[in-house]
Write a structure and sequence with these properties.
Two copies of one chain form a homodimer. By secondary structure, chain A is an alpha/beta fold. In chain A, 46% of the residues lie in helices and 16% in strands. The first copy, chain A, has twelve helices and eleven strands. An eleven-stranded mixed beta sheet of chain A has the order 3-2-1-4-11-10-5-6-9-7-8, with helices on both faces. The N and C termini of chain A lie far apart (43 Å).
Chain lengths: 341, 341
Amino acid sequence: MKILVDVMGGDNAPSAHIEASVKAVSELDVDIVLIGDENVIKSELSKYGDYRADRISIVHAPEVISNHEEPVKAVKRKKDASVVVAAHMLKNGEGDAMLSMGNTGALLTAALLIVGRIKGIQRPALGAILPTAKGPKLLIDAGANTNCKPENLVQFAMMGDVYMRNIYNIDSPAVGLVSNGEEEGKGDDLTKKTHTRMKDMPFNFIGNIEGRDIMEGNSDVMVCDGFVGNVILKTIEGMGHMIGDMIKDMFSQTIRTKLGALFVMNSIKDFKKKMDYREYGGAPLLGCRRPVIKGHGSSDALAVYCAIKQAKMFVATDVIDGISKKLAACDLTKGAEEDNV
Amino acid sequence: MKILVDVMGGDNAPSAHIEASVKAVSELDVDIVLIGDENVIKSELSKYGDYRADRISIVHAPEVISNHEEPVKAVKRKKDASVVVAAHMLKNGEGDAMLSMGNTGALLTAALLIVGRIKGIQRPALGAILPTAKGPKLLIDAGANTNCKPENLVQFAMMGDVYMRNIYNIDSPAVGLVSNGEEEGKGDDLTKKTHTRMKDMPFNFIGNIEGRDIMEGNSDVMVCDGFVGNVILKTIEGMGHMIGDMIKDMFSQTIRTKLGALFVMNSIKDFKKKMDYREYGGAPLLGCRRPVIKGHGSSDALAVYCAIKQAKMFVATDVIDGISKKLAACDLTKGAEEDNV
């Protein structure tokens, strides 16, 4: 299995990406193609004397799409950008999955325009793995689509169902629809119409869930449009930072509290590990013809390593074939005439 | 000044409400009308031998609207429900502000149908006070309106500006628009159109803010539609609970960690106090002709007391007159033709 890694994007590029790739080829039984500036990659690789060079190859792609560039323009103009080259390779079968920590918009654009959608999927969506009280759960769409129709959300649910079955071995993932109240009648126009349609679908729809249910983790798949998903994801991130800072302050105030910290050191480490997004890998882009993963921009080597592991699972459990089959089992035409929100 | 307190709604009704009212009349220089079942109220009051009976009066309103009732129907049918009686009294000038911890929908309905809107305000909105890293900030709309137009959001911003000026003495409150990216081009149709309109308004619009900015507290007023606001508010609540539980677990694992807890006890108390929503009072409903406050359903006596204090400020600083004047200063017709989202 060959994983394509765009080494040019992200806060810690390319060193974290290359460190993770060197570790992955020796531990995960995968081959890796490092895509980016060849000289930079070679110089980074030279730091590792004894790496499995037989499993790592390099493809020269010197252009970079920065976070400030307009994605569609950049992808169309910069033919030698690492993310564009990776997408072409993925499409042509020169790799089994791709991973990028760079500009999210550029990755989404390259995935849509170059890799293409699964037949029947109207809009691919980003899934974010959240560290809930009951373990990792999927929020979909976490930011790819801002204006959605009910059918899009039904498809997100369906894709999330397949992902959680295959990657986390959950028999019948509980699918919740994010709304402003648990009752069926609650919601904006989009969620109300989506609720009605979801009841007839071949997945375990448990109804509306509220914001406070998200981190409780009672739903394996939490469905919303990408605007709401992005706001949820970033609200959780922001609150995590704030509370992390407060806890740090709490323990560093006096000698007395510093002493207290020593006593709970192991528990703090456990707590941090539980909340550590890095362990969960990146955000799978579901609905494309081939596996695409968006790693967090601030990923370090551990996060990239976990995302490579996730990419391997994505391929090995054949999520994409699962989505195609699930799609064939859903009658999405039912209720479609009411889709205009 | 006379505050109308609906004592029949909320998890701790009526005891918390009456305890808070007894305290408020002795400390805050306000009169209070307790609205609910007279016998229940009298029996509760009898527990306080020495309260300022001259400042407390009772209005008998025996009916209750539970959390499971359909708000509009319930408000129209139950003429003797405490929230309905309170709203009529507020409208008729028999009180200066009203406070309810009960069914949110019923309170919103009573406020809209009975108290009425400020002339020119299309939709009153709920403001939630969030305990951010930079102190209390206002999220508006926190749940009153699920399907909004740009003009609604512009009015929410305007009302939030007045509230934060008056209640928190902020000279020129920074107004942020919640979106899925900081750049002007980011957002769904609603936020994009709202962004354009906000630039011309007489308040300090600082542009789009993201979910991660919410708890950082760089905006005094954070504007969104009520669907998104409800999801944000409840996500924050849920995450707060989860982390609170985790911290409790962290300290109660072993004798060693319990010992550690003793060392940081004071810091934990400070931390809890900072995150304590009770201190901030309830959620003001902005845009009605008279001051209406929604207290949290789980309010205890401290929370109700703080909400009474807040109601007093709401009246004393004349927020409603401020909103009318601000509205007169805004040319809301500009760009209104593009309001169809």
